[in-house]
Amino acid sequence: LDALEALGYEGPLLDEEALTKAVEKGLSSTEFSAACSWLCSEIKLLCDMEESITATEDGDDIESLQLEISGFLKEMSCPYSALTSGDLKDRLNKSEDCLKLLLFLSSELQALQIAKSKK
Predict the structure, then answer these.
(1) d(CA 100, CA 105)
(2) String of b and e for 40-64 (b: at least 16 CB within 10 Å)?
(3) CB 4 within 8 A of CB 32
(4) pLDDT at residue 43, as a whole number
(5) Would you state the pLDDT for residue 59?
(6) Are 83 and 101 in contact (CB under 8 A)?
(7) Cα–Cα dist 31/23, whole Å
(8) What are the φ and ψ backbone dihedral angles of 21, each rounded to 5 degrees?
(9) HEC per residue, the chain
(10) Residue 48: predicted pLDDT
(11) Radius of gyration of the chain from Cα atoms?
(12) What are the mean pLDDT values of the chain's consecutive 10-residue runs (119 residues total)?
């Protein structure tokens, strides 16, 4: 929560209960996919990325979102194998993997913001 707030995120997942519910729903949660999309768009602004993520509405088109996230994470060299390998449909089914995704994207964005501020 603190990391999201420090990064400038202003969405509903700043509330701990809302974050817990969104993470439990995973990609079918509009709030979760929107937070991931926001983090990715902020990362994309700070570095030259090809991939992007589009938030889903009411859990629609989760397969496309999974593909977008997979491509984005591979481009970012994500170290979490649970997020980048195996059957695409099995990724992000667990709350802990959804939290790993938020943690990875948040920490990458923080690192990019720090690097940019030192230039």
Answers:
(1) 8
(2) bebbbeeeeeebebebbeeeeeeee
(3) no
(4) 96
(5) 61
(6) yes
(7) 9
(8) -65, -40
(9) CHHHHHCCCCCHHHCHHHHHHHHHHHHHCHHHHHHHHHHHHHHHHHCCCCCCCCCCCCCCCHHHHHHHHHHHHHHCCCCCHHHHCCCHHHCCCCHHHHHHHHHHHHHHHHHHHHHHHCC
(10) 82
(11) 13
(12) 90 95 93 94 90 76 89 94 90 93 96 90
Q: Which tokens hold the place of 88? A: 């695409």
Directed axis angle between helix 30-46 and helix 95-117, to 10°?
Answer: 30
Q: For the CA atoms of 109, 110, 113, 117, what is the dihedral angle to 10 degrees?
A: -170
**Global model pTM greater than 0.85:** yes
The whole-number pLDDT of residue 49 equals 84
- Do 46 and 112 contact (CB within 8 A), yes or no? yes
